[in-house]
Amino acid sequence: MSAIVAGTAPAAPSVTRRPRGGIFRAILHNRKAMLGAALLLLFVLLAAVPKLFVPWLKGDPQAIGDLPLQGPSSAHWLGTTGLGQDVYAELIYSTRESLVIAVIAGLGATILSVIIGVSAAYLGGAADNVLSMMTDIFLVLPTFPLIIVLATYAGKGNLTVIIIVLILTGWSYGARQMRAQALSLRNRDFLESARVRGERRSYIIVVEVLPTMISLIVANFLGAALYAVLTAAGLQFLGLGDPNSLSWGTMLYWAQNQGALVNGLPAWALSPGLAVALLGVSFALLNYAFDEISNPALRPVRRRRAKSAANS
């Protein structure tokens, strides 16, 4: 009040702006994020340019060879299958389909989670009740048996069907998280200002709400992609995928059917399983890293102590 009487305006509160590229700086300073990103980049390179990693291969990586069930050698680094196919070449070329399943299914499940979760929280009332009830139903369903039934009767061996099934069974957990986060934002001042300005609901959700949830959306995508990788490999191992396709799950299926371990070829059985595990680890590490980046309370105690000591 005295500032007004004296004719001087009160000092405007300082606004701390987040520097551009802050999320990338946070990733560069997070060991989990860097390791996960390095692994994921390796798999992207394998999927994009597989020939770069198998330069001696001419023609089809599934071409039948003359030396079936051979152990690892200089000519065949991981041995050969029961039809004489090079296991290493199949492993490299199988990366593309496995990564495509992870990205498309993870992206589809994340989009569905965002649409249902954020809409339920923002709209409220009957819409919230209906969408929340639908989410709860999918949460309590026995997921893997349902996936097997749907994949079997909707189109066994059809990659598109498998991806759709993974999307339909992988969105509910993320939708619950999105709804909880959106509920905490629904009555914030910046949203009230948008309503007072007369903005449409769709504009408020897309322009005002979603940008504040980017870290949660990215973490949800990584979790959904991890779920898709492991589940798709399990389905293909059970024979519910296309047995003629090139994927890690299909390699596991043929290794089991043709007795890789019985014939003394552990590399044939273990290499696709290790590839699935490493891709899953890359998604999991990035997921943990984004949780730490978005929530300082989850960061390691030693890092917080070092920062406190430096500030003091």
Fold and architecture overview:
- The longest helix has 29 residues, at 95-123.
- This protein has 312 residues and is mostly helical.
- The radius of gyration is 25 Å and the shape is elongated.
- It is built from 15 helices and no strands.
- The protein has helices spanning 2-5, 22-28, 31-48, 87-93, 95-123, 125-140, 143-155, 159-169, 172-185, 189-196, 201-209, 214-237, 248-257, 266-294, 301-311.
- Helix 7 packs antiparallel against helix 8, helix 12 packs parallel to helix 13 (248-257) and helix 12 (214-237) packs antiparallel against helix 14 (266-294).
- It has one domain (30-47, 78-295): MetI-like (MetI-like fold), CATH 1.10.3720.
Identify the notable features of this structure and list them briefly.
312 residues; disordered N terminus; 15 helices; MetI-like fold; mainly alpha; 67% helix; 0% strand
SSE order and pairing:
Layout: H1 2-5, H2 22-28, H3 31-48, H4 87-93, H5 95-123, H6 125-140, H7 143-155, H8 159-169, H9 172-185, H10 189-196, H11 201-209, H12 214-237, H13 248-257, H14 266-294, H15 301-311
Helix pairs in contact: 3-5, 3-14, 5-6, 5-8, 5-9, 5-12, 6-9, 7-8, 8-12, 10-11, 12-13, 12-14, 13-14
Subcellular location: Cell membrane
Membrane topology: Multi-pass membrane protein
InterPro entries: BP-dependent_transpt_permease, MetI-like, MetI-like_sf
Question: How many beta strands in the DSSP annotation?
Answer: 0
Instruction: Indicate the proportion of strand residues.
Output: under 5%
Q: Outline the low-pLDDT stretches.
A: 1-20
CATH superfamily: MetI-like
Overall tally of domains:
1
Q: Could you state the order of secondary-structure elements as H and E? A: HHHHHHHHHHHHHHH
Class per helix and strand makeup: mainly alpha
